[in-house]
Every structure is written in structure tokens, then in C-alpha cells.
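HUMAN:
Just now I want nothing more than another pair of eyes on a protein record. I would be glad if you read both lines and explained how they fit together. I have put the entry right below:
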Amino acid sequence: MKFRQPAPPRKLNKIVKDHWKEIVSAYDFQNDVGSLKILENGCRAWQKADELETIIDANGNSCADKFGQIKAHPLLPLYRDFLAQHTACMKILGVHQEPVQRTGRHQILP
């Protein structure tokens, strides 16, 4: 029986859905619900970071506070945290490593 790849969560945008599909097609997630949840969390974090990046780009990396002093954009720490969450999820899955024969990593074909 051929394993059917899980579809990406509906709330993800097209770019992140493509990222999901690329990872799921390259790695073995069969019967591994935990790894799929980690992948979902990582993809959601990447999407949130992308949304924040759009806002930050529109407003600039810095702004003036109520005293007129220049400070970093208040969304920059949140943006950084979402990127870090995505990276951590990919590391947990082993997506950053090549090639190892275990769930969440490339399968070596004969």
C-alpha cells in the first residue's frame, strides 16, 4: 500500500503550503503524528514571521517613541521569536541534516 502524503493545514498561505509539501515529499512522516504536528507548528511560525516582516518593511525597522527618541520597531522581537521557533522545529525534525534513515529525514533509496 502506497503512503498518502498528508495535506498542509488549510490556514497556511501558498508559499508555506509549498514549503510543507516539499518537506513532506522529501521525508518519511508515515505513522508519525508528532512529527507532523512539529512541522505544522514550524510552518505556522514561518507564516507569522512572514506576516510580521511585511508590517515591519512597510513601517521601517525603527520608529520614534513618545519622547522623539529612535527605537527599534516593537514587532522586531516577535519576528525574531517566530523565526527562531521555525528553525527549532526544523532542527527537531532533522530537516537541516542530510541523509539519515529515520522518520523526518531523507530515505536513502537502493
About this structure: Strands lie at 62-64, 70-72. The mean pLDDT is 86. Residues 14-93 form one domain.
